[in-house]
Amino acid sequence: MLFVVRHSLLFMFLFAILGFLLPAFSLALFPFLSIVLFSLMTLTLLGMKQNELIKRLSSRAIWGYTLLHSIVLMGVVSILGRWLSFNDDLLLAAVAVAGTGSLFATPAIVRALGFDSVQAMAMTISTTLCLPIAICIALFFYQTEQLDLDWVSYLLRLMIFIFGPMFFSFLVHRFFPEESLNRFLVKISPYTILLVFAFPFGLVGSFRVLFDQDPMMALDYFLIATGLCSLFFVLSFIVYRKKGKAIALTAAITSGNRNVLLTYSIAGALLGPAFLPLAGALQIPTYVLPVLTRWLNKALAR
C-alpha cells in the first residue's frame, strides 16, 4: 500500500487508462463517485489548518487567481470555441469545464510534488466557491435548450457538495480536541489520495461509450480535452512565472485539475449531452499533468 501511495501520481494516470479499458466497471462506479467526492472533500478540509486556510482565503492574491481560473479562462475558451466552430453543445461543455473549480485532490497532488498544499487548498476552495457563478454564466450565455434551472435542487446540491464538507470540517475542529484529531489525521492523510483513483476510473467510462459509438468524434473530444488542460496549465504558469517556480507550478497544476464531477453533480443534464463525454476525455490529460509537472519541476531546477 505504501508503494501505491508513494507512486500515486503515476497510479492516477494508470487508473484512467484502466477505466477506459474496462468501461462496464467504470460506468458501474460512476453513480457512487458523488459519495467519494464528498468524502475526499471532507477529509481534505479536515487535514488543513483552519486558521492558516482562512488567512490565505482572505488574501487578494487568491481571489485574483480565482478570477483567472474561472472568468478569464471561460472567456478565452469561448473565443477559441467560436473560432474553431464548436457546436452549441460542445461550446457549452467546454465553457463549463473552464468555469469548473479545481479538484479537491489538488492539495494532495501539490503535497506529493513538494509544494505548498495550503496555498493549493485555498485556491481550490476559492474556485469552488466561484463555481455557482460560473455555472450560471455558462448556462445563461451558452445553453440553447429550453431547460429551466431548478433553483431548489441547485441550492440543495450546493449546500451538500460545497458548504457541507466545509461546515462539517469547521464543527469537527471546533468541538474535538486538536491533539486527538491531529493524531487521527496523521494516520489517514497519506491514504486520502487513494480516493482520487476512483475519479479517473469512474469518469472515463462515458468517453469510452462515445469512442465505441464514433471513434473519430471521440478523438476530437480527446484532442479538445488535451488542449483545454494544456491551455489552463500553460496560461496560469505564464501569468505566475515571475512569482517563482513553486507558485507558478502550483497555480498551473491547480488550474489544470478540474473538478468536473462536482460541476456535473450540481448542474447535471443542464450542461448538455457533450459535457460527460468531454469530462471523461479530460481524465487522461488531467492525470498526466502531475507527472509532467514533476518532470518540469526537476527540469527547471537544473
From TrEMBL:
Organism: Marinomonas colpomeniae
Top-level taxonomy: Bacteria, Pseudomonadati, Pseudomonadota, Gammaproteobacteria, Oceanospirillales
Protein name as it appears in the record: BASS family bile acid:Na+ symporter
Presence of keyword Metal-binding: no
Keyword hit for Transmembrane: yes
Entries under Gene3D superfamilies matching the protein: 1.20.1530.20
TM ranges: 12-41, 62-84, 90-110, 122-142, 154-176, 188-209, 221-240, 261-284
Record key words, sorted: Membrane, Transmembrane, Transmembrane helix
